[in-house]
């Protein structure tokens, strides 16, 4: 499996495009600038199959409808953030974008628990990693040694927890119980910033030292 990051929008939210040997693609967190996503998909001649959301804050969902309608593909989000796509107050755009609001249509599928998923040749595990937001989830592609962590875990940092539904203690517990137990060589693809590894964050992340 191949993966490619596209930092999008003013917050440079990482949209990840995953592709397999059959040319199928998964799009994770298309936050803004749909033309950039479409251009990459066209350049690589990929066949998008689904949009996966690590959570539904505005900077992760801004291009959802454009991409969904372009390729007629379903959107997956955790059930705890079912209403966030359609509600600017919940997804934060009402408060952070100075008058501009972001709304998307409801998700096509709601993820209700941790589970193993198979979508068009992609096999992965869904981990519930709340703390940054109530419905934050991470996608673990075990065979490829990759976990997409959304805004839970970053290189040398962790997600903010001062937004509605956030919890610092819960986020640390999520990271400890769901992510740090993965093999140390596992590549972490975060919602913002560069990729890292589980081992690197165990050794040097100042927010996790002593936890």
Automatic annotation (TrEMBL):
Keywords: Hydrolase, Metal-binding, Zinc. Transmembrane segments: none annotated. One of its GO terms (molecular function) is metal ion binding. Pfam families: Lactamase_B (PF00753). Its cofactor is Zn(2+). CDD domains: metallo-hydrolase-like_MBL-fold. InterPro entries: MBL_Glyoxalase_II, Metallo-B-lactamas, RibonucZ/Hydroxyglut_hydro. It comes from the Bacteria. Residues 12-192 form the Metallo-beta-lactamase domain. The keyword Cytoplasm does not apply. Signal peptide: none annotated. PANTHER family: HYDROXYACYLGLUTATHIONE HYDROLASE GLOC. This is Glyoxylase, beta-lactamase superfamily II.
């Amino acid at each position: 499996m191949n993966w490619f990051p596209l930092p999008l929008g003013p917050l440079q939210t990482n949209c990840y495009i995953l592709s397999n040997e059959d040319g199928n693609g998964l799009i994770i967190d298309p936050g803004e600038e749909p033309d950039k996503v479409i251009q990459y998909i066209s350049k690589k001649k990929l066949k998008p199959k689904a949009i996966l959301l690590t959570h539904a804050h505005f900077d992760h969902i801004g291009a959802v409808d454009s991409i969904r309608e372009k390729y007629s593909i379903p959107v997956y989000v955790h059930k705890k953030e079912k209403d966030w796509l359609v509600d600017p107050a919940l997804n934060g755009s009402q408060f952070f974008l100075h008058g501009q609001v972001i709304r998307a249509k409801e998700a096509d599928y709601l993820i209700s628990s941790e589970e193993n998923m198979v979508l068009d040749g992609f096999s992965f595990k869904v981990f519930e990693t709340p703390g940054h937001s109530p419905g934050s989830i991470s996608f673990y592609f075990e065979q490829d040694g990759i976990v997409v962590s959304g805004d839970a875990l970053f290189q040398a940092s962790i997600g903010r927890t001062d937004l509605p539904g956030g919890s610092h203690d819960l986020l640390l517990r999520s990271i400890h119980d769901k992510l740090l137990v993965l093999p140390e060589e596992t590549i972490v693809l975060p919602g913002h910033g560069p990729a890292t590894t589980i081992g690197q964050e165990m050794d040097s992340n100042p927010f996790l030292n002593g936890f």
